Amino acid sequence: AAALAVTYLGFSAATVAYQAWGAEIAGDSSLRTRLTAAREGFWLLGVVLAAALPAIIAGSLSEGIERLSWILPPLLLIAAITSFAGVGTGGGTARVPSGEALWPSLRQLLADVAFRRLLLVFVANGISAALPATLFLFFVADVLHGETASGALLAVYFVAGAASLPFWLKLAARHGRVTAWLAAMGLATPAFAGASLLGSGDLWPFALICIASGLALGADLALPAAIAADLGQRRQQSGACFGVWNFVAKLNLALAAGLALPLLGALGYVPGGMAGLGALTFTYALLPLAFKLLAATLLWRWRDSLEIRS
Asked: N or C: which end of the chain has fewer CB within 10 A?
């Protein structure tokens, strides 16, 4: 528990700094969108590699994870050295931190109506994505009866997300980020609805749903964060912006787990059994659909205040 706390504390601090850095070094909205998409694309690549490596380097999952624990620290060291070696080589002038206290900085940021609206859309859309992420393994094992295919299905989902990033970049450049994000929500909506119709053995239809929802994932990762970067930079509050952003992102996951798991328990679902499978399908597919439609409605209503070009 202590090791996890230290790891995630360091990860959160690095992530906030990294995202704020990207917002500040980009001169306009287009470049901020490209930087955000590149960052998220490499994150997805790391997820796929981390999922695939245990099976590649060992014959069993447990042995592969054990070996991965020896491979990961040297990789982290190489990444850290590479990162530090690249800092400060751009020839620019370092920006002196404002030194503004935390709470005044956060109050100033949250006074921005557009940022508050973006957060509400982000929460609704984030819960929509976090609910199926929380219940994915339960759904594949107990509804589809394809537990052994879970790893391949997850890989398909993340690879589709990474592959879709160039498309969403082009669509956002041509029609705007809000329009592109709405299109991604429109793609995800029938995927959620289709998942509610599946049953035992429907792995190939579910693979198509993983591809569709994975394609939408690319937009969910790149476009909202790029809009947030513009809003934070507009007020010269990039650090505070992404501090709040990461807090809300983690809150989405916590809310999804806190909502879904007690609800399933109350509705009689027991993992590995036959009871409550209808409740599992509802919580996995239809409840996220409701949150997705809410997010799309709010985004459409506030599209003019969130479509920022600088």
From this structure: N
For residue 43, pLDDT over 70 is answered with yes
CB half-sphere exposure, 164, CA atoms < 13 A: 28
198 in helix, strand or coil?
A: coil
Q: What is the pLDDT of residues 164-210, one digit of tens each?
A: 999 999 999 899 999 999 999 999 999 989 999 999 989 999 999 99
pLDDT in tens, 259-294: 888 888 888 888 887 888 899 999 999 999 999 999
- Residues composing the chain: 310
Whole-number Å distance between alpha carbons of 83 and 309: 30
**Ramachandran region, residue 245 (left: φ > 0; alpha: ψ -120 to 50; beta: rest):** alpha
Tokens at 86, concatenated = 């690249």
State residue 263's pLDDT score: 87
User: pLDDT digits over 71-119, tens only?
Assistant: 888 988 998 898 888 776 555 555 555 556 777 777 888 888 999 999 9
DSSP-assigned states of every residue in 128-145: HHHHHHHHHHHIIIIIS-
Least confident window among 19-33, 252-266, 295-309: 19-33
DSSP characters over 29-93: HHHHHHHHHHHHHHHHHHHHHHHHHHHHH-SSHHHHHHHHHHHHHHHHHHHHHHHHHHTT-S--P
Tokens for 172, please give them. 């956002």
Structure tokens at 101: 């206290």
DSSP-based three-state secondary structure for 309 = coil
DSSP, collapsed to helix, strand or coil, labels residue 190 as helix
On the 0-12 / 13-18 / 19+ scale of CB atoms within 10 A, 221 is buried
What's the whole-model pTM score? 0.85
Three-state SS for 280?
helix
Nearest CA to 295 among 136, 133, 181, 132? 181
